[in-house]
Specification:
With about 450 residues, the protein is of the alpha/beta class. The protein has 13 helices and 15 strands. The chain has a 15-stranded mixed sheet, sandwiched between helices. It comes from Hyphomonas adhaerens MHS-3.
């Protein structure tokens, strides 16, 4: 495991001359930014014009990432603009990496990293603007960054930075436990690797655990022997299909078997948390429904107390090559991971939060073939983590950029793919230990972690 650090790599040159870049195009998706950038480029001797889409210049700046509106749509628009550029054109995609509203933050860097993996040789750069000032100041930073080599950069007020991996981290020394009993809210916490982390937290901190998930708690039939293998369970259900109320068709049997296994896993998680001496409650909830979630959480807070720790582990995949990713695929991925976090935070009293943990992905750091949408959503999480840590100095905020786990979203086919690339899988026990160590005990200024093997150069 290594920390992901933001380091200074350059300062802004006030004597920049852009004449040598030739004609520069700027997309008009965000008109105010486009015009300000055009003026800034020309102030430095460059030649720029505003276009509706990349056309014929050697360099095009994309302002799609600076538009208002839903995050999924914004990132899909940026991808479409990148795809529309000629293969020989240098493209620079812009977005904001910090903003007063979380919905105005972007994750374009993750999208660009994945795009470059799928299409080697593409000249694609991302410029993510930190501490955004007025439009003219932002435009000036962009204009003075156009000569940077193709890569991903953060444009801060006084300097340009890049993300780099730090040295390997040892487990931090343990701190004294909290004097009061914590209340943990864990999205996606009933099943999978997030559940392992919840159990480890219960062993470390005790307290109360509210586990949010989409699955229902389907009870295991009395007549059915316990089973953990899906294939074997389907076979057992098929043999008992003559029983009243038992599904008969193969597709119905499969659906019921999956519901049974999900319910059994949730029940096992609750039992493990209670065995650790903590209280656990599973709540089936749609974290995308603001009104419903607000009402649900208000009731739970009355019962168990204010939430003091948030673990956001919810997430789904909708993979595809960049040429095939449609808006729906972005919406599918962004709904639980991005909108879910926004809605959960809006329903909580942030003054009570002592810990926030976000489940990000190494795809945001390295990119990954077929996961440009997922990498973008997780890059957004990383940017949000930095902003929350800055604005909430008394709160431990951590973003875990997980490599592939043994289990979780990694099926047998993905496991073979990672093995072929020489990338080891994180065991559930080790991942949960790392998670609890760093969330509870690491220094406040260590916000982002890459857990697992480095796979950017694979």
């Amino acid at each position: 495991m290594r920390a992901l650090n933001s380091v200074r790599i350059a300062s802004y040159d006030g004597t920049t001359s852009l004449e040598h870049l030739g004609e520069i195009e700027i997309t008009n998706a965000a008109p105010d930014y486009a015009e300000a950038i055009r003026q800034a480029i020309e102030a430095f001797g460059g030649n720029a014009r505003i276009v509706s889409a990349p056309h014929s210049a050697g360099l095009c700046l994309l302002t799609e990432g600076l538009t208002e509106g839903l995050l999924a749509n914004r990132h899909h628009m940026a991808l479409q603009a990148i795809l529309s550029a000629d293969g020989n054109m240098r493209v620079i995609a812009l977005d904001c990496a910090s903003a007063p509203a979380l919905s105005d933050i972007g994750g374009i860097s993750g999208l660009c990293r994945s795009f470059r993996i799928e299409r080697p040789g593409t000249r694609l750069t991302s410029l993510s603007i930190y501490a955004p000032a007025d439009v003219d100041e932002t435009a000036s930073r962009v204009a003075r960054s156009l000569d940077l080599p193709d890569s991903d950069y953060m444009l801060h007020t006084d300097e340009i930075r890049q993300d780099v991996l730090g040295d390997g981290l040892l487990p931090p020394p343990a701190h004294e436990g909290a004097s009061t009993s914590p209340v943990w809210l864990i999205s996606g916490g009933g099943r999978g690797v997030t559940a392992n982390c919840a159990v480890e937290l219960a062993n470390r901190t005790g307290g109360s655990f509210i586990l949010l998930g989409r699955s229902d708690m389907t009870e295991w039939p009395d007549w059915l022997e316990p089973e953990t293998d899906l294939k074997a369970l389907r076979s057992a259900l098929a043999k008992n299909s003559t029983r009243p109320g038992t599904p008969k068709k193969p597709v119905e049997i499969d659906r019921f078997a999956r519901k049974l296994l999900a319910g059994a896993e949730i029940a096992s998680t609750i039992k493990s948390i209670e065995t650790a001496g903590a209280y656990a409650r599973y709540v089936q909830a749609d974290i995308g429904d603001r009104a419903s979630l607000r009402s649900t959480l208000a009731t739970l807070v009355k019962e168990v107390g204010a939430v003091t720790g948030l673990v956001h582990g919810a997430g789904v995949l909708s993979d595809g090559l960049v040429s095939t990713l449609d808006l729906q695929s972005f919406e599918t991925v962004f709904a639980p991971k991005v909108m879910g976090l926004e809605i959960i935070l809006s329903c909580l009293d942030k003054r009570s939060l002592s810990h926030i943990a976000l489940f990000s992905s190494a795809s945001a750091v390295f990119g990954n073939e077929g996961q440009a949408n997922y990498a973008a959503a997780n890059a957004w999480l990383n940017n949000v983590a930095i902003q929350l840590a800055t604005s909430m100095p008394d709160t431990q905020v951590k973003s875990f950029c997980w490599g592939p786990w043994h289990g979780g979203m990694v099926d047998d086919a993905l496991a073979r793919m990672f093995t072929e690339r020489g990338i080891g899988l994180i065991t559930r026990q080790e991942g949960a230990r790392i998670f609890a160590d760093q969330l509870l005990n690491s220094p406040h200024d260590q916000v982002r972690f890459v857990v697992g093997d480095e796979w950017g150069d694979q």
